[in-house]
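#structure-requests
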Amino acid sequence: MVAQVAESKDPYTLHALVTLDYTSTRLMTKTGGPSLSVTIVAQNEERTIARVLAAVADIADEIIFLDSGSTDRTPEIAKSFGVRFYHQDWLGYAEQKNKAIDLATGDWILSLDADEILSLALAAEIHDLMQGGVRDEIDGFRIPRVLYIGDTPVRGGGFYPDAQLRLIRKGKGRFQPRIIHESIKVEGAVRQLENDMLHYAYPNVDEFAKTMDHYARLSAQHYFEHQNTAWRRSRLNEILNPAWTFFYRQIVRGGLFHGPLCWRLNVIYAGYVRKKAQYLRRLIEDQSR
């Protein structure tokens, strides 16, 4: 194709050849549009990984799978789906996901956690989006996300829609460095898709509580290093912020209408907010000893 263009001096021939090459490239992708890479970072995710990979199989032109040392069947399951499998020792949340993005070759990149499953409707929406093409000024799309505890969805109380910026144009976005709650920043405009991603994060409430405690410790470390304000470490913040958080999520965000599970989760979440202040003070006290 390059040789044909180089040899031709006729502008109409040049245009036709370039158009043919562009059309051929689009026809070779699974969506008939720009190529799509799916990136996944994982460790010991055999509980969900087969469903995650099956859900993107019909739209992903490549799947970049970055494993940080799984000891269960995660690598075996992933390789059975024909992924591009890599090992990378854990670099941190943002750094690990950016490493996967750097390995991707698609025009667009869908960054997923190993417990995030595309609904059939979302996969179809992304297929149609790629097939129809995206306006040049748009560099990313947020995706609504439904939290699951076991097989039970939580659609209220501040846990939904929890939209995440995960579908980005290649070279236009990266995860921002942060110990916890990493997120993507893109250069251009962002829009939101309509259909849901299913987040099978926790098999039960106890795992949710354990993870929230871990996140509270990581958040405290982040604040200790970057945002160590008097208010964040104050006892007043420790009392008022959790109380407001629980009220806001249960009353304003409607958790009250989503049953006892939502109530339990928001009790734990308010505790997470309280623990961030407690753990931050402990870090300060440990430093002063």
